[in-house]
């Protein structure tokens, strides 16, 4: 049995993670902690899952690394500077693994992977991301990450920028440009989290679409991370390598 502690256990994601850990074979929930709880209550855990807040996560991870706990981290707000701090701390504690993933949805990760594969074959590409109206940021982090991966794949394939006249003339009015890839953001009641990557060529289009309908969609990725993190000392970014698609 692998003992798992959840930080942020009363939150939307953390409470879902507690249920998923309790239901997972070979995993045991040994601590469910939220703000004001003493982290020492996680002393018997082998792996910590953190879905707290950008303000809290670095202190939580320092505690984990100092105490030899592997960590699976879904909390957002990781800058390159923060990742460097983690790398430095992990270098002093070889054997400890930390997995930081901005998106634990296996479908979303595959959508980005397939989009990067297709990008090498199409000059024309645009992204539409659609979310509930309470989402504050636009474009979404996943859309920006997809655009960066598509742009990198286009550059590697030496594809030029989209040649369509309307794309050039209407650029400002047609959503944001992320590394030359246009991203359109829709905020609408009834939506949860959705994204389409559209590719176009003479006489055909290809659309890769992903729909998140429930927070449960993140749990298989989180549980896969919990099972894998102990085998991956140091810092791992994203679940692509764990899924074998990165
Ligand atoms: P939430 O506000 O519902 O929950 C956060 C919880 O953390 C709260 O219960 C809060 O009291 C608790 N908390 C705050 N500081 C703490 C501390 N020091 N120690 C322990 N608990 C503490 O938020 P949420 O929707 O569950 O999201 C949590 C984080 O996960 C956010 O950063 C969000 O962007 C991110 N997120 C990531 C993914 C992913 O796939 N990586 C998916 C969804 C959300």
Automatic annotation (TrEMBL):
EC assignment: the record states: 1.17.1.8
Q: Which PROSITE patterns match?
A: DAPB
Q: What class of enzyme is it?
A: oxidoreductase
Q: Where is the Dihydrodipicolinate reductase C-terminal domain?
A: 107-243
Q: Where does (S)-2,3,4,5-tetrahydrodipicolinate bind?
A: 132, 141-142
Q: Which GO terms describe its molecular function?
A: 4-hydroxy-tetrahydrodipicolinate reductase
Give the family from UniProt.
Answer: Belongs to the DapB family.
HAMAP family the record matches: DapB
Q: What is this protein called?
A: 4-hydroxy-tetrahydrodipicolinate reductase
Species this chain originates from? Microlunatus panaciterrae
Classification of source organism: Bacteria, Bacillati, Actinomycetota, Actinomycetes, Propionibacteriales
